[in-house]
Specification:
The complex is a heterodimer.
Chain A: H1 3-21, H2 30-52, E1 56-58, E2 67-68, E3 71-72, H3 73-95, H4 109-129
Chain B: H1 5-18, H2 20-23, H3 32-56, E1 59-61, E2 70-71, E3 75-76, H4 77-101
Antiparallel strand pairs in B: 2-3
Helix pairs in contact in B: 1-4, 3-4
The chains are: A mainly alpha, B mainly alpha.
Chain lengths: 130, 110
């Protein structure tokens, strides 16, 4: 099997785990698709260094040959499968009751401050409307 | 120094994501048991994939730019750490987005 075939299979398997095995259905959630573009930027960066500097070297016969920022396009699929599996297991564990708390953002002074300012502004706008 | 090239890339990834823990209080490291249980299956699956790919010759690692410490099957320890660092960064990023957007992810938050 080529890396191309293995990577495609990996994506299908990860989606299968997310939708049917663990039923986390992250690929149908906004929060996943809001996270993935951020992750992909860092993936292209780190993967670009790993392949551009030839720290990792690919057999040309195993890949289709399309490259994005030095890295074979298959790496994007590999990365997607790994990130989706990771987040699916993480969410599944939470659903099973493993360390739901403390939740994300709980106790962040920065978030509290930003929300207070936001509420203030929307509050002002609302009173101006009236 | 160049033997640390792969490890430096991983350190760079961690630096880019780890600040989310104290600044946004994503509380991922504080939920370390859940994090370790998440890493376990991911590491197993992707190490197996990696070993198969190495055996099939899909990719090789430059011995000059990796630590040179090889695990059974020819897996560089650098690559094993990749399967620790990247999932940790992914969870940190995911929880940061949740903290800001407050959209449900389905783990008892709906």
């Amino acid at each position: 099997m080529t890396y191309t075939a293995a990577a495609l299979l990996g994506v299908v398997a990860a989606i299968g785990v997310d939708l049917f095995l663990l039923r986390t259905r992250l690929v149908r959630r906004v929060v996943f698709w809001a996270t993935y573009p951020i992750i992909i930027v860092f993936q292209l960066l780190s993967n670009g260094i790993l392949t551009g500097r030839r720290i990792v070297i690919y057999d040309p016969a195993a890949i289709i040959g399309w490259r994005i920022a030095y890295a074979p396009v298959e790496d994007l699929l590999f990365g997607f499968a790994m990130v989706l599996l990771t987040l699916s297991v993480w969410v599944w564990l939470g659903r099973r009751g493993v360390q739901r708390e403390p939740r994300a953002g709980e106790g962040s002074a920065l978030l509290r401050f930003a929300r207070a300012r936001l509420d203030e502004r929307t509050g002002q706008r609302k009173s101006a409307d009236m | 120094m160049s033997h640390l090239a792969y490890l430096l890339v991983l350190a760079g990834c961690l630096v880019c994501a780890i600040w989310l823990e104290p600044v946004l209080r994503v509380n991922v490291l504080r939920r370390w048991r859940r994090l370790l249980l998440t890493l376990l299956p991911v590491i197993v699956v992707f190490v197996l994939w990696d070993l198969a790919a190495i055996a099939a010759g899909h990719w090789t690692f430059d011995p000059e730019q990796t630590t040179g410490i090889l695990l059974p099957g020819g897996l560089p320890v650098d690559e094993l750490l990749f399967f620790v660092v990247v999932p940790v960064c992914a969870v940190l990023g995911f929880e940061a987005v949740r903290a800001v957007l407050r959209r449900p992810a389905g783990d008892g938050d709906e």
